[in-house]
Request: fold
Amino acid sequence: MRAMVLSAARTPLRLEDVPDPEPGAGQVLLRVRACGVCRTDLHIVDGELVEPKLPLVLGHQIVGEVVDGGSRFTVGARVGVPWLGWTCGECRFCIAGQENLCDRPRFTGYDVDGGFAELAVADERFCFPVPEGYPDEQAAPLLCAGLIGYRSLRLADNAERIGLYGFGASAHIVCQVAVAQGRRVFAGTRAEDAEAQAFARSLGAAWAGDALAGPPEELDAVIVFAPAGELVPAALGHVRKGGVVVCAGIHMSDIPSFPYELLWGERVLRSVANLTRADGEEFLALAPAVPVRTEVETFPLEAADEALARLRSGELRGAAVLIP
Ligand SMILES: [Zn+2]
Ligand SMILES: [Zn+2]
Reply:
């Protein structure tokens, strides 16, 4: 099969012919129909996540068609493969229903090969049926941008006024869910990014502007999607007493020191890590009911580097998706 392969950090992906993967016990073999590109993929390429399997096929938002293997799905079924590829089932976190924090997890497109390829294998227990009504490329971003965004939104409690800082693939989905739930969304972007601000307003945001300066009114919670540590003290300064700041990314630049006063008043600063299968089932049932519509830009498989470059430069509107 053809695959885009990462051989070492900080090098371009290369199109290679590699042997077809073979499904093991409990695994499905999928023909990849679409695979979303995530900021986590950039962090892996850039060497900021330091222990990838190498060489590696990236990609953890796979929409694929079952061609062989496993017993859960029939041949031809359309399934989604997320970042959480396998958990041990035995550690204290798995037993407590927090499999997102498993001590020995395997992540798709990091510990095991992902979907920047024509074929992929996945543990069938960690796959999701893909909701009907979504074309492949529009379903793909639901699997990480949507799912982890949704988990972040849940951790923001019942915030009525919610800030989404960094308006990319994840925020554009979370914004639609939050607006449908009757919340008011405040979209923070780079000061000069008028295009992202207009995009946020078109999706129902009540305000869109410079994230560092913040909106004209106090917020109940902020989800920080951009990997910029300086947004954390800024966001703490924008939330009310008892408000929550949720860091949704897997990697962020260092958070500058800040006066304790910003945290005082029972403000909460927390991260969100990975997903549980329950998150996935909940979100994939909710998305068509909202209904969430994803804005995507598609690229052929061999243009994966271009897709990553566009994500890095912030030029994408919505999500990038590879079509093998
Ligand atoms: Zn992701
Ligand atoms: Zn575990």
In short: Residues 38, 40, 60, 83, 144 surround zinc ion (ligand 1) (CB under 6 Å).
